[in-house]
Amino acid sequence: MNNKVIICKNCIYDSSMPTVIFDDNGVCNYCLLIENLKNQYKTGTKRGEEDFKKIIDEIKLAGKNRPYDIIVGVSGGVDSSFMLHKSIEWGLRPLAVHYDNTWNTSIASENIRKITQSLKIDLYTLVVDNKESSDIARSFFYANVPELDGPTDIALAETLYRAASKFKIKYIFEGHSFLEEGISPLTKAYIDGGYIKDVHKKFGRIKMKTFPNMTFFSFLKWVILYRIKKIRPFWFIDYSKENAKNILMNLYDWEDYGGHHLENRMTAFNHSVYFPVKFNEDQRNNTISALVRSGKMTREQGLMEYNKPHYVENGLVEYFKKRTNISDEEYEKVMKGEKKSYLDYKTYKKRFERLRPLFFILAKANLVPMSFYLKYCFPIKNNK
Amino acid sequence: MITIIDLGIGNIGSVINMVKHVGGECEVSSFPSVIKRASKLILPGVGSFDRAMNKLREIQLEEVIFEKATIDKIPLLGICLGMQLLTNSSEEGKEKGLGLIQAETLSFKKEFSKQIIKERVPHMGWNDVHVLHSNGLTENLIEPSRFYFVHSYYVRCHEKKNSFMKSHYGFDFDSGINNDNIYGVQFHPEKSHKYGKKLITNFIKL
Question: Which of the following is catalytic: B63, B168, B190, B193?
């Protein structure tokens, strides 16, 4: 077998990643996917802006006689902060919604406060009980699975939906940009509410009471009954993180926290310690590849950046151990221990696959993200 | 030929587009040698006051711009943060400004909390601009004109003669400042459609 790793000519994805394939010119399928998305959404062109303007008009019409037009989920990071700023510029009335998993850095909380107060935007926050949050993190750690941060994603999604239904809002804005972040490759990482329930049942020590889990039925309720739509403005309009940062710092005294996803300690631990050490996988290549593709970084700079060690905030690992009450020995044991995946636990995946035709229709109607349909409704080939 | 100063912070594409759109010629540069032979300068700006001033010093442009404006007396237009850089100082940072116009850059937030004004910060969107006295830039501008603003800090001139445009957000502030060949506007002409076109056309004609 030939073990030579091939690296894409256009970005830095390589053949060691499952689902990455190359064309005759040595360009990977994800570069192609991004090109297709760019053509489809006319990102950053006049057409893209006009299409987005039509969506805004539609949203304003739907929000008439209601206190808010849209929900913007906020983390204190650059994308969601900038989304609040743009929403006001577009003449929308956003409700900022924050899911606090109690692992926030103070910079993130301060950023949220600065922007919402300056722009006089109402903020709805759901705070999970901190012991419960630690317990769920510990469960995923002991379950030996890579989705340490998955529960936060699910809880955020559920919190956004709950706020949307409570305030009768039909649209949720998401700050994702495929030009800046890429599309994360289909890997074996997976998350849903059933998975969280099962892992917590097996490894949790206290009852789950305040954690906003999304069950299979609540998911269907939000998308079918409430028909809450998710919109990604940065798929249409020109967006640059660097630019956004400058604007935020100047207008709001916003503070940089030094790296993608590092505004939250759980995410930071997952991203810079747990994932690379235990699973030997590096998620930075998504962002770096995106920057290389869009010419914001040369391929050489990208590879250099990728080969740098992870930046780990002082005391991050200690913080994780302390919060989850895991001893040094136990920690080392798990970090070097077996690797499991969602296939070892109960999830909704089979149900999603069975209902694939339904989710196709929902994805077409913007009610679930297309990426959900592509990722969650098909069996993932195990080509390890 | 207009030389647009590129500090490498923030997007200056829309300024370039606007100049070209109204038939002007322009070049973009951050090199002292190029700026030295410029006949007309635009200093655009997004970003923070200190970062921009430090950048100007780092690439050795502070002195060049000062000389071009005061000795060669070529037309210079500062836009948004670029206008604030023309003043003596800013409440946003600690660095000294270029000091080309006797004025200070102050914080909306601070003043709003003092006066108990319940407006959003930043001042964002379209707003009226009133011409206080005319100069080369104000030719054919109707009264009031409407321009596009995005800023959290505003400028207050020491002397009335240096303020040629005013706008209202919570209170009156100087939205256009001028000292001889040196001009600054707080709004973004490059994002202000027909009014912006007129103003940039006027600048080209200076």
Answer: B190
Give pLDDT < 70 ranges for chain A: 1-3, 186-188, 259-261, 381-384
Q: CA angle at residue A336 from A332 to A341, to 5 degrees?
A: 120
Instruction: Classify B145 as helix, strand or coil.
Output: strand
* pLDDT of B46: 73
Helix (H) or strand (E) holding B2: strand B2-5
pLDDT of residue A286: 86
Tell me the mean pLDDT in the region B4-29.
90
**CATH code at B136?**
3.40.50.880
Question: Is-catalytic flag, B190?
Answer: yes
Question: A85-114, pLDDT tens digit by residue?
Answer: 999 999 999 999 999 999 998 999 999 999
pLDDT digits (tens, 9 = 90+) for A142-171: 999 999 999 999 999 999 999 999 999 999
Contacts of A248 (CB under 8 A, 6+ apart): A78, A81, A82, A85, A115, A254
In chain B, whose CA is at the least distance from the CA of A114?
A: B121
Residues of B in contact with A91 (CB under 8 A): 125
Is B81's Cβ below 8 Å from some Cβ in A?
Answer: yes
| pLDDT for res A382 | 52
**A25, two tokens:** 């010119």
Cα–Cα dist A330/A344, whole Å: 21
| Residue B193 annotated in active site | no
Check A246 against B150: CB less than 8 A apart. no
| Catalytic status, residue B188 | yes
Residue among A235, A231, A237 nearest A369 (CA):
A231
Contact A240 B11 (CB under 8 A): yes
Please state, for a pLDDT cut of 70, what percent of chain B lies above it.
100
- CB distance A96 to A123 below 8 Å: yes
From B62, B80, B92, B151, active-site residue: B80
At position B191, the amino acid (one-letter code) is K
pLDDT reported for residue A261: 64
Of B10, B120, B122, the CB nearest to A243: B10
**Residues in A touching B152 (Cβ below 8 Å):** 118, 250-253
pLDDT given for residue A186 in this prediction: 67
User: What is the predicted pLDDT for the residue at A260?
Assistant: 63
Query: Which pLDDT band holds residue B116 (cuts at 50, 70, 90)?
Result: very high
Q: Using the Cα atoms of residue A68, residue A73, residue A76 and residue A79 in order, give the sign of their dihedral.
A: negative
Domains of chain A with CATH codes: 42-281+314-347 (3.40.50.620)
Domain total in chain B: 1
A122 touches chain B (CB under 8 A): no
CA distance A155 to A99: 7
Residues of B (27-66) whose Cβ lies below 8 Å from A:
46-49, 51
Identify the domain containing residue B162 by its residue range.
Answer: 2-205
**pLDDT recorded at residue B55:** 93
* Contact list, A114 vs chain B (CB under 8 Å): none
**Would you call A246 an interface residue with chain B, using a CB distance cutoff of 8 Å?**
yes
Identify whether the C-beta of residue B147 lies closer than 8 Å to the C-beta of residue B162: no
